[in-house]
């Protein structure tokens, strides 16, 4: 397991200390390496990672599926919970010892985007797969023992003992969780916030409404929990892996469709089950064909499709403009529409009250040294979220 070099989480890190799971090229195994982690500069924070988990976005970056993600060597990872080790000049809202959740879609609070109620993007710190260095000086805070840079990932880089982030990309947890609850907060960095937020903030699911969720990974299951919490009467889960149906039931799903069970298109089956189509569909796969089925599964006149899955293919939307004249709509969402620093603390409190089941989404727990095994579990479809102990 990655060594803990501090006598306590409130200690200070030597500039040349730290271990991380470093990947040196697409599809290359992760290597646990000794690295340098520089002190935080102006408006930056250095944190000790306590727990981190693996998302399909990490898997896609590891595979090199997107040319924008080709900066190597790199420290991947963007779901985590940690504690502040030190802060740079100008940081006021965070202090040493604070429990924090990294967010890949930051919030500076000052730009025209952050001040707008119409978006959760930030002008400077929005999600950007092209970005592999810090905003302050265009350099990395990670390096090998002999001084060669190791690149950042999605404003976060959490597969490491220590990480340096812009303060705009950290959310303070205004709660006092015990150890078992704290590790569950890891999922607020991406999966749960994205899925639940899509149901609450983007679709605005109402009591008695109907929902179809395409792709029953952690994000799709989180969307189901969000729809259930809002009182949806029918939640249809669509997936080619029937093993996911059992956990889908625990997350609020009422019906299931396996596309392999019938030659009839999924959207026709959904329409038959719902007298014309669902009110909301969620595409959580990142596949153009699945997106079209999700779109056609909604009811004409008012049906709304929310795109959550990341689409690495250059293929454009599989829609004809005239299909939108029937009243159906389609929209994409980043981070479930949440303004991270402003709104995520309330979601954390809802989780503490038991509104959402985070623990049920953690299918495996492993030490960081077993990260390659964890990636294989996700790649094989055997894991929802694998929590890594740092």
From TrEMBL:
Catalyzed reactions per annotation: a primary alcohol + NAD(+) = an aldehyde + NADH + H(+); a secondary alcohol + NAD(+) = a ketone + NADH + H(+)
UniProt domain Alcohol dehydrogenase-like C-terminal: residue ranges: 218-341
GO process annotations (BP): formaldehyde catabolic process
The protein's enzyme class: oxidoreductase
GO cellular component: cytosol
GO molecular function: alcohol dehydrogenase (NAD+) activity; S-(hydroxymethyl)glutathione dehydrogenase [NAD(P)+] activity; zinc ion binding
Statement: the UniProt record of this protein carries the keyword Zinc: yes
Keyword list, A-Z: Metal-binding, NAD, Oxidoreductase, Zinc
PROSITE patterns referenced in this protein's UniProt entry, alphabetically: ADH_ZINC (PS00059)
Statement: the UniProt record of this protein carries the keyword tRNA-binding: no
Matching Pfam families: ADH_N (PF08240), ADH_zinc_N (PF00107)
Names of required cofactors: Zn(2+)
InterPro entries: ADH-like_C, ADH-like_N, ADH_Zn_CS, GroES-like_sf, NAD(P)-bd_dom_sf
Limits of the Alcohol dehydrogenase-like N-terminal domain: 42-173
Enzyme Commission code: 1.1.1.1
Subunit structure: Homodimer.
Family: Belongs to the zinc-containing alcohol dehydrogenase family. Class-III subfamily.
Protein name: alcohol dehydrogenase
Source organism of this protein record: Turnera subulata
């Amino acid at each position: 397991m990655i060594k803990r070099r501090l006598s306590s989480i409130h200690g200070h890190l030597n500039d040349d200390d730290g271990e991380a799971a470093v990947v040196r090229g697409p599809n290359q195994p992760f290597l646990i390496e000794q690295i340098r982690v520089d002190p935080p500069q102006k408006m930056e924070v250095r944190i000790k990672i306590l727990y981190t988990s693996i998302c399909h976005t990490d898997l896609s970056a590891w595979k090199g599926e997107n040319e924008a993600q080709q900066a190597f060597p790199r420290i991947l990872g963007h779901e985590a919970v940690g504690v502040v080790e030190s802060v740079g000049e100008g940081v006021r809202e965070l202090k040493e010892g604070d429990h924090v959740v990294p967010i890949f879609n930051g919030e500076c609070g000052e730009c025209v985007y952050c001040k707008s109620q119409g978006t959760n993007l930030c002008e400077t710190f929005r999600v950007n797969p092209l970005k592999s260095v810090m905003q302050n000086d265009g350099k990395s805070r990670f390096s090998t023992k002999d001084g060669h840079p190791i690149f950042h990932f999605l404003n976060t880089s959490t597969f490491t003992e220590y990480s340096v982030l812009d303060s705009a990309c950290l959310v303070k947890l205004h709660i006092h969780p015990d150890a078992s609850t704290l590790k569950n907060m890891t999922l607020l960095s991406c999966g749960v916030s994205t899925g639940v937020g899509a149901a609450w903030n983007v679709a605005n699911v109402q009591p008695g409404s109907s929902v179809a969720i395409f792709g029953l990974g952690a994000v799709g299951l989180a969307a189901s929990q969000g729809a259930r919490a809002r009182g949806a009467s029918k939640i249809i889960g669509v997936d080619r892996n029937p093993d996911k149906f059992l956990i889908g039931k625990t997350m609020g799903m009422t019906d299931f469709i396996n596309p392999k069970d019938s030659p009839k298109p999924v959207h026709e089956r959904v329409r038959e089950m719902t007298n014309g189509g669902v009110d909301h569909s969620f595409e959580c796969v990142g596949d153009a064909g699945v997106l079209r089925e999700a779109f056609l599964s909604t009811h004409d006149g008012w049906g709304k499709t929310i795109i959550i899955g990341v689409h690495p293919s250059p293929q454009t939307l599989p829609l004809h403009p005239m299909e939108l004249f029937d009243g159906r709509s389609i929209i994409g969402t980043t981070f479930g529409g949440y303004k991270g620093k402003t709104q995520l603390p309330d979601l954390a409190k809802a989780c503490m009250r038991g509104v959402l089941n985070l623990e049920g989404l953690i299918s495996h727990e492993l030490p960081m040294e077993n990260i390659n095994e964890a990636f294989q579990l996700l790649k094989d479809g055997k894991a929802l979220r694998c929590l890594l102990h740092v």
